[in-house]
Design a protein that fits this description.
By secondary structure, the protein is an alpha/beta fold. The protein contains seven helices and ten strands. Helix 2 crosses helix 3 and helix 4 packs antiparallel against helix 5. It is globular and about 40 Å long.
């Protein structure tokens, strides 16, 4: 059974969905960070699959049922959204699972909170937060996920600045699993990105999902859920 919660990053309410209730006793678990237009509901299947391991999925500002500020959509603002949720629940150490543009946000959080992070799962995205173009904003607003999210999309576009994390992530010593879709099928991790990950994180494990594009749960969701759950449970137990 899933439950909804809210944390506050300053005046901005950040929604999260959890698969556990807490009695105040701190314990380990997993925290999911969705893609750029995803929200806490994007990982409902994963939350149920990893149970009884405690898990949380968040809606970054402007997405899901989180508040929609007019401005303040910078990379750091979004990292601080994760921090606000993490600080509001007794979930530590944590394993982070980041998808797409959620990857650099999760990686920055992991670097800042190294002593509280037992593992990071990177899903098909480089260690780089993008500068969003006007063309991207127009496509995003025209998409199904972007309907009713025009203010957030504009905020993301106006606040974005390319941020490279290849040097920052060298500080991570926890287990790292990198899931890659096939570039020929729409996967976003290029060979040079994988090389940079291995240069920065030589202990990282890379798994390629044959036949999958950026939506790596297609066409074999069981493969994705099993791989994710095995990594999370292994890292949580360390």
């Amino acid at each position: 059974m899933l439950m909804n919660g809210v944390a506050k990053n300053g005046d901005v309410r950040i929604e999260f969905v959890a698969n556990s209730t807490w009695d105040g006793v701190e314990g380990s678990g997993v925290l999911f960070v969705p893609g750029v237009l995803g929200n806490a509901d994007s990982f409902r299947d994963e939350l149920e699959y990893v149970a009884p391991t405690p898990g949380i999925s968040i809606s970054l500002r402007g997405r899901g049922r989180s508040d929609v500020p007019i401005h303040e959509y910078a990379f750091t603002d979004q990292v601080n959204d994760i921090q606000a949720v993490f600080d509001s629940v007794p979930l530590s150490p944590v394993v982070l699972v980041g998808y797409s543009v959620g990857v650099p946000i999760a990686l920055e959080f992991a670097v800042r909170n190294r002593s509280d992070v037992n593992g990071v799962m990177v899903i098909d995205y480089p260690a780089r937060y993008p500068a969003f173009s006007e063309a991207w904003a127009e496509r995003a607003m025209a998409s199904e996920a972007g309907k009713g999210r025009e203010a957030a999309i504009r905020g993301l576009r106006e606040s974005s600045k390319e941020t490279l994390l290849w040097t920052r992530i060298r500080e991570l010593t926890c287990p790292v699993l990198i899931i890659r879709g096939e570039p020929s099928c729409g996967g976003l991790l290029k060979d040079e990105d994988l090389a940079r990950y291995l240069e920065a994180l030589p202990h990282a494990q890379i798994v390629a999902f044959a036949g999958s594009g950026h939506d790596i749960w297609n066409p074999d969701k069981d493969r994705y859920l099993t791989t994710m759950c095995e990594f999370v449970q292994s890292a949580v137990s360390k």
